[in-house]
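The methods section describes the discrete structure representation at length, but only in general terms. An entry of this sort, consisting of the sequence and the corresponding backbone structure tokens, reads as follows:
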Amino acid sequence: MLKGSKVVRLIPDQVGRGGVKSASSTQNRIIDTYVTFNATVFMGRWSASMQPWQSGLYSAPYQVGYNATSNAISQALFNFAFISTTNSASSPNNRLLEHIYDVGVSGKENLLMDHAYFNSSGVIGTSALNSSVNFCVPATFLSIRNRAFICWGGYQTTIPITPGSGTTIQVDNIIYDQSSGRNYDIGCRAPLTAPTYTIGGTTTGTTSVTTNSNKVNNATVSGNWSSSTLGINLGGVPYVVQSPGGYVTSFSTGGSVTGTSGTNTITVNGFLFPVNGDWNGLTIHTTDGGNAEDLVIQSYTLGGGNTTVTTKTNLTHNHAAGTYTVIGEELALTTAYTNATTLSQTYTAGSGPLSWTGIGPQYAYAYYDPVTGHVSDVSPILQVTEQNQQGVNVNLTNIAKSVHTQDGYRFSQILIFRTLASQGGISGGVLYPMGNGSGSFNNTVSNGTSGGTTTFLDQYSDSYLLVNSGLQAPLTTNRQPVGPFAHMMYWDGRVWGSPVSDPTALYFSCDSVQCPFGVPEESFPSSNLLRIPAEDGKITGTKLVGAYAIVTTNRYSYYVSGNNELNYRLLRFASTTFGVTDYQMTEFAGDTTDNSASLVYLGGDGKIYMNSPTYGNVSMSDPVQDILWTVLGNNQVQFSSVRMAQINIGTQHFLLVSVPYGSGRNILLYDFDRKVWTLHSPGMALTGTGFGFPFTSFATVYQSTAPGGGTIPADFVMSSQGNIYSWFRPPSQYVSGVDPAFIYTFPMDFGHKGKKRLQQVRLYCNYGTNQESGSSSLKWTVQVTNNENVLPYYGSTYTPKVNQDPQYQLQGGNSLAGSYTGSPFPLDAVDARELVVNLPGDSSNAMIGNRFTIMVNFPTANVSSSPVTQLYKSYELYAVDLVYEDLAEPGDESL
């Protein structure tokens, strides 16, 4: 230490652009750095950023799924964490899904990829350009009940029905369903035509009926009736046949018959027929000798123990105490016939299970997915117009199969719905699905994928209907979305989407209350709609932020208020969000859903804001506004290419803003804990162009597999041209090099005016073995300039030396509390070094001025040599001491 000198220590407290300064002319002794490039503060030290790491990132399947060209741009990246539903102890099956735009791939310029698959089998969907116009917006991904919902505003996206399948379908929106191994559209189109029908299961004829009798008789066994006959319609009035035992062909008799030829009267001696004329219409078959004949009973009277029968025709023989039997067939009804007696009443008898009074039941059908349980809206409703039917079947015809392959292969079954036949076609009758009598949907019809029709014979009683309020036919609730969504979010148990065809509309799906039958998030009734004012232009983005559903437009932004489809409404809360799309905003997730979450976005004015509907807008980009305005200017194309993401990795909480820079990208990181910005160009050492990789999409993978086994709680990944890299892993999980890094201070007056001579710069860092010899890429260097000269164009560059004075060596043995991955605190760590720059003291070269700017450059290469191994570690700077002396000048006065 130089006698009489003063020391200012810079420590990594408020670093980067921003932080707290006490005044414009003087600064806090804990001085902010002006620029921190490719370095952040981690565990109390400046830590150089490791290079983005691809090799060995994941197992081999996590590679690009097609041959990317130099034109490829990653539009969106999403980690779809598929959870096992059979093994609660298993880790999520993480699948990185990506939207890539690549004009170098003819016919498939927009691709949706699953990086878990190799080559072409990894393609989830493709959408070609039309006349060189890109109709897709960056894809939005949602994870809902173990399925990935995807939209990108592209009409008729081509997707394989299963990953790697050569069979493709065209859809507007996409559900990537790993549980069933299928890809398909959101929702299903309803059938467009009602079925037709015929009444079946009946026979017709004439029969004998008697007023107030519950017996209907035929003189012979007609073959039209049987024990299966369940009902009969007599003169337009339906009657139910008793069950069991309602059909009779054997009649018990007694006594003898007496009658005279040429008359129509015959007496049954000593036996009484049933009362009420129940045997009218049956036949007396005489069997006395050669006088056998059949006589139809027209009517009879009872008296004196005998039965006097009037026959329909005259006798042809005389009978004296002859033998006889009664033959024919009889239906016993549950109620008595009430109209006029006749031997020739027309009838329609049925052996079917359906009976109704008044107009008939209603029918409809719908397409059904037996895997997910989703069902389309039903077809137009069929009304059976035949009245007062008993014991009939209804044969449904012209049941339309799906004409759309994307519907038919998923919705492989057709459900038949019917009102309760016992209720007939009453107004407001409820349609229930047909079951198998055991409470399941097995009683279905197979659907198809290329149109055509099928039939269904309804021969099932009401007991087969699944009468349940949760299974009522969906009439209008289960509508499919109206074309592709450009923007989509999931909030309040519903999917919210803005369709390309109606850009001022925000449709929302049902919840489980509004859609009890089917999958609510695939059901979009036309009434579930909110609309922005016309002067707002169109909806440009949607985002879920804590408890709020945010909608941005060409003018304002809104959040959704309310809790059900009856009271939802849009409330404006920000006026600087004009033009903000899905990826120019992100959520800063707080510790609680309701109170801490905020929306962070790049406003149309080029500023970055933090906003919550509860406290309004706060600008946070002032320290880096020059960078943003240089990139953006008035160029809307550049504005739309900015990407934002949040990073929560361990103790680090950053906002990431990716902006175009040259042929690559710069990344601005905002440290939420220290309220400062740092500048990064990840991959700069690998590209060899002076620019970093063009990282344009980002995701966080939770429970990621670590090299050599084990898991990483959270892994932040980025995509450049379809290739996946990891960034911000804990130091122990890196196997990559470092990018060039430096810190660059504000001009410092050390808290008071007047001339000073900077005498010495001391660095406390974690590595300095090669400071005296070796490659310059292994050395720490310091640049110093005075007054208003700007680094690095002015000033001198110095290579500090390892301090050899044992009196001022760092203390060993964990002299400061704390630990770092099992070793002592950084200042006491085994690889800690104190590096010193002694600045010239002669008058011609001395560093004299009122203010000084310091730039510390980190080494740019790793080493694995003794005595300290720095391979795959981050270079770290713990503190910087600036040693100076005050200079007195003639005329100076104490201030």
Q: What stands out?
A: The helical segments are 405-408, 625-632, 636-641, 684-687. The two ends are 27 Å apart (CA to CA). Residues 19-31, 55-65, 128-133, 807-826 have pLDDT under 50 and may be disordered. The chain has four helices and 68 strands.
